[in-house]
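Dear colleague,

Thank you for sharing your sequence with our group. We've completed the structure prediction you requested, and as agreed, I am returning the results in plain text so they can be pasted directly into your records. Please verify that the sequence below matches your submission; if there's any discrepancy, let me know and we will rerun it promptly.
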Amino acid sequence: MNTAGVEDIYELSPMQLGMLLHSVHAPDSGVYCIQISYALKGRLDAVAFQRAWQSVVDRHPVLRTSFHWEGLEKPVQVVHRHARLMVAQHDWRARSLAWRETELGTFLKSEGRRGFTLTTPPLLRLTLIRWDDDTYRMVLAHHHLLLDGWCKPALFRELFDTYEAHLCDHRPDLPPVRPYRDYILWLQQQDLAKAEAFWRTELAGFRGPTRLTLCPLRQGTPPPADDYMEHHVELTEAVTSTLRSLVRAERVTLNSLVQGLWGIVLSGYGGGTDVVFGATVSGRPAALNGADSMLGLFINTLPVRLRVPAGQALFPWLRDLQARQMEAREFDYTPLVEIQRWSELPKGEPLFETILVFENNVGYGCGWERYGTVEIGDVRPVIRNSFPLTVRVVPGPQLSLQLLYDSARVDGAGIARMGEEFTGLLGRIAQQPDATVDDLCVVHRTWKERRLQAEQEALRTVGAEKLKRVRRRAVSGGG
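Please find the predicted C-alpha cells below.
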C-alpha cells in the first residue's frame, strides 16, 4: 500500500468489518452500496453547490477514507489528505415527467450495479439532475462503510451552511470536526466482559433462529442488485395519528409498538412463542462528546428477543419490552459476531433472518426540510444489505413500511401478505387499544387461515379450468 498522501491509518469498527467482508465476498452484488435521490427546490447555484460538497469532503476525514485488506494481518481504513468528489450533471427539463421518472429509476439501478473500488477514495459520488426550472434532483451514492442514515442531518446542515457562505463569498463559521478515529478508540476501551454477561443472559435458552417460512432460503452470497426488491405499504393519516396518541398515553414509543407487532407476525409465520429478530440502533454513545454531530458509521444491528405471552394485555407487555431494550442500549457497541458466539445456537447458524429499522432521522424521513434558501424532500433511498428481509419503518403523517427483500431467497407474494398483515394489526390496535397479545395472535392466525383457504380455492379453480381445456382438446382431436 502506497502511503504517499496518507493522513491517518486505523482499524475498522466491527460493523465496518462485517460490511467489508460481505462487499469483498460479492463485489458485483451492490450490497451496502446506497443511492439516495433527493429533490432540491429553490434557485440552486450548481457551481457553488459543488464547491460546498468538496469543502465538506475536505473537512471530514471519514469522507476521504479508503479500505485495505490484501496482504495485511487485519483490514485497515486509510484517510487520504485529498480526495476529489466526482460530480455528474444532466439536464432533463425538456423531457416529459413520465420519461424523467422512468429514467431516474433506470439510473438508480445502474448506480447500484457500479459499486465502488474500496481502495480508492472517495467512496461517494454525486449526480445533479436539472428536473425543472426550480428543482434539481440530487443523487448521492456512497458506500455504507462511510456513513449511516443518522449522519444525514448533520451532513446537510454543514453542506448548506457552506453553500450559503460560498454564495456570499465568505468562509462558513463551522465548529471543529471530531474525527471518526475517536469513535474507534472509544470502542476499543469498552468492557466486552460486561457485555458478554448481559447477552448470554438475554439469549439463554434460545437455540434456533426464527426462520422465514415464505419459501426455502438461498444461503451464501448476497443477492445481485436486480434481485433485491421492495414492497411498500402505509397507514392512513387517521390511523397513524390515533396510534401516536395511544402510545403517548400508554408511555411506550412507536418503535416499541412496531417491534412488538413484528414479533407477533413472525410468531404467526412459524416462529413459535420465542422470537428473535434484528433491530438497528444508532450506536452513538452519549459518553462520547459530540457523537451526535460526527460523521461515520455508528449503527449496529442487535438481537431483539420477544416471548409472545398468553393472556397478557398488550401495553404492559410492550412496556416490559421497552424496559429491556433500554437496558440493552448500554451495550449498543457489542459486535454482533461476538453476540452470535455467546449464544446457544450451533456454530454457523444466524441469530436472525429479518431486521427491523425504525428511521427516526431526517435523512430518510418524509416531508420537506428547509436548509437556507433550498428545500429538500421527496427522499427515495435504494438500500441493499445481506439479510433476506429488512423491514424499514419511516414515521411521518402516514406511517410507511418498506419491506426490502432478496427475491431469490424469499417469495414476493409472501412478503406482500406479511406487509398487509403487519399494517392490519396496527390498524386493529387503533380500533381496539385494549386488545391482549392473545387477541392479536388469534386475529393474525385467522387472517392467515382465510388467506390460505382462498389461495387453495383459487388454485383448485385454475386446475379445474386447465383440466376442462385439456379434455376439450382431447375430444376435438379424436374427431
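Summary note from our side: The chain has a mean pLDDT of 87.

Kind regards,
the structure core
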